[in-house]
Design brief:
single chain, 5 helices, 22% helix, 2 domains, alpha+beta
Length: 278
Amino acid sequence: MIEQNITVTTDTHAIWLIISGDKILQSTENEGFMEDTWGSLGFAHAYQEQIVRIGNHGDLPCFLIDMGKEHVEHEQLTRVSLLALLMQNHTSFFGIASRAWQIALFMRTHRFCGQCGSAMQQIDWEMAMQCSRCGHRCYPRISPSIIVSIRHNDKILLAQGKPQRSRQMFSTLAGFVESGETLEQAVHREVFEEVGIKVKNLRYAASQPWPFPHSLMLGFLADFDSGDIQVDGKEILEAHWYSPDKLPNIPPKLSIAGQLIQHTLEEIKQQKNLTFPS
C-alpha cells in the first residue's frame, strides 16, 4: 500500500523512513527503524507536504520523507546506507526500507516528462508521476535480475567480479534480464557469457528486493551441464569450483547470494549423506 497526500498530527506514532542524500536516518541509540511521533521530528516538519505512506511494519504505519540532498546534522541521528541496514540483521524491515528508497529515487528522477519535457506531477490515487501536458504516466522502475548458484557433484561455482576484488569476496553469478527473455533464458545466457559453461535442472529458490538502485533479484539453483570455466575478463575476473570445506570469503546469509550458497551447500551435504551413509 502506497498513499500520498497524508495527514499526520503531532501524536501520529509511526516508523519514519527519512532519506537524506543516499542514506536513511537512524537513531544513534537504536539500530534499525526510527519509531517516533511526528511531533518529535521537528527537523523534518518542513517536508510534511511530501510525506508518503508506504505500508506497515508490524502494527505500525511506515512513512517516507525524502529530504533530497540535505544532510541532517543531529546529535541523536546518524545516516546509514541501505547495505549497512541489511547487515544489521533487520531483514523484514529491509523490505520496507528498500521500497522507501526506490520510491524516493523514482520521484527524484521523474520531475520532468521523458516524452515532451514538461513538468510531471504526482497523482493521488496510485504511485505514479503524470505529465501535465501530454498525459504520459510513469511508474516506479523495477529491474528484474537473475542470480544463480551452480553445483557440480560436491562442489559449488563461485566467482569474483570487479566490484568484489577489493573485498576479496567470491559469490554467485548474476545479471539483468534482457527484453524479450524469460527468467530461465536469462540464467542460461548470463552463465555462458560470464563463465563459458552450460547448466541444467534450474530450480527457483527465492527473491529479494535489491535497491542498488532498483533491482529485484530472482534466485535460482542449477546443476552443471557441460563446458570448461572461461571467465569473460570484464564482469568476472575469476571463477572456480570450491569444496564446502574450502570456501573463500562469501556473502553473508542476509543477502540473496548468501542464501543461495547455503542452499547449494545443504544440497551437497544431503547428497553425501544419501550416497555415503554414516
